Amino acid sequence: MTENTPTKPPYKMIAILLAGAFIALLNNTLLNVALPSIMADFDISPATVQWLTTGYMLVNGILIPITAFLIQKFSVRGLFLTAMTLFTLGTALAGFSHSFPVLMAGRVIQASGSAIMMPLLMNVMLTSFPVEKRGSAMGIFGLVMVFAPAIGPTLSGWIVEHYEWRVLFYMMLPFAIVTLLLAVFRLYDNKQSVHTHLDVMSVILSSIGFGGILYGFSAAGDKGWASLEVYGTIVIGVVGLVLFITRQFQLEKPMLDFRIYKYPMFALSSAISLTVTMGMFGGMLLMPLYIQTVRGISPFHAGLLMLPGALIMGAMSPITGRLFDKFGGRILAITGLLITIVTSYFFTTLALDTSYTELIMLYSFRMFGMSMLMMPVMTNGLNQLPARMNPHGTAMNNTLNQVAGAVGSALLVTIMSTQTRIHAEELAGTIDPALLGQQAMVEGINDAFMVTVYVSIIALVLAFFMKRAKPAEDSNEELPGRAEDLTEAPNHS
User: Fold this and answer.
1) What is the spatial distance between Cα 72 and Cα 67, in angstroms, rounded to a whole number?
2) Which of 22, 119, 137, 394 is 20 to 30 A away from residue 381, measured at CA?
3) What is the pLDDT of residues 239-248, one digit of tens each?
4) In terms of pTM, does the model score above 0.90?
């Protein structure tokens, strides 16, 4: 048991935070299937409606780096109540919206709340459990992190087929309100507000850096890489990010401390997570394109196809956590990546007549492999950080996941689009013209999946360098947000 870990973790607090995180993560993928319906309802273009997901991701990417400062300065109760209130208000506004700008405003408010929840929950999990039990604890966190967004397409597919898209928000609103009320009456912690200064220039540079990169890569799939809007914002983002990182090294108390990369296992876990996330997000985008656009399968059945994989990931997360505590992250990461590589390779052989059963089995096995990757790799890296670095580590991981998801999706969609045009030219005159577009797109999707194979191989090579991590020596200074502050206040129990 480490010095900074309480003897009894605050299970009541963790349960409330998990409920909030589940709702926020479910919201991430719930709207994807409904975008065509929203587009028709408001008579807007695909490029415009895409802002409902791009804008959400942008707000997350801009706000998440600030969470390291917020976690150190404010109590868990104060931060969670603020986050959940924003999320609930955004959900209500989106549900009752009758114009696209109002719906967009609701999504932005939702995102400002959800951006705080995930780093906050992860930080509480890290400070509440000793290193030797963190795997099991983070396994429960992983269940929420993976299962909630995975069931989103199935649930939203069924709702969109039978009801209007606003029901997605109506359904979520009571759960958000109940979670908020539980937090008001049952969530307490002993942490007092800590006097610390937020560097405004860091916030501006962070917003320009992460926002520019996220926007540029997100817009690439729609506008193309030759667009000034795409490469211009990426260049501005990179410059902003370089200036942001430079400034962090100059500050005595940085907003996001990049010195965490001097810890080799954390640096390695970031590199592996980046490559895996790029492949995972891209795969989650390519599958619906193949199923719905090429095969013409309904939104509900498209979502249903992904459900077994989601259930497998949900069931495996706690098991993976316990295996991590016993064997460490290396063997799990290597096994998971081998499964991911093999199943991703099979996805490079898709055809116009690939059976529905085969698709379910392949996708489910791919998710089984992924279930052994994300949380063990991430937890092993975070385990090496001293206690005061935990907020910076969780904020960095969540920020990189947003960036990797955007970059991976944009790259794979671009590869798919480019290869589809090339294959259409190659196949012209050789097959039935009615099937030309579909066959060319299948070949393009296969080529994009081959890129995920190469990316996963890079991650596999890196995984062989993983070692079981232990917390590095920390200074004896008074640390804000230490674990003792997270014990529940006895006078409110």
Assistant:
1) 8
2) 22
3) 999 999 999 8
4) no
Query: Do 7-192 and 260-471 share a fold?
Result: yes
Fold entry, domain 260-471: Growth Hormone; Chain: A; (1.20.1250)
- What CA–CA distance (Å, rounded) separates 168 from 245? 39
Give the dihedral sign, CA 296/301/305/307: positive
Place of tokens 């379910």: 360
Q: Is 264 exposed, middle or buried (0-12, 13-18, 19+ CB in 10 A)?
A: middle
Give the start-to-end residue ranges of the domains of the chain.
Answer: 7-192, 199-254, 260-471
E strand or H helix at 116, and its extent? helix 100-128
Q: What 3-state DSSP class applies to 13? A: helix
Q: What is the Cβ-side half-sphere exposure of residue 121, based on CA atoms within 13 angstroms?
A: 31
Query: What kind of architecture, by CATH, is found in domain 7-192?
Result: Up-down Bundle (1.20)
The residue behind tokens 């540029």 is 216
- Give 6-58 pLDDT, tens digit per residue: 456 677 788 888 888 888 888 777 777 777 788 888 888 766 777 787 778 77
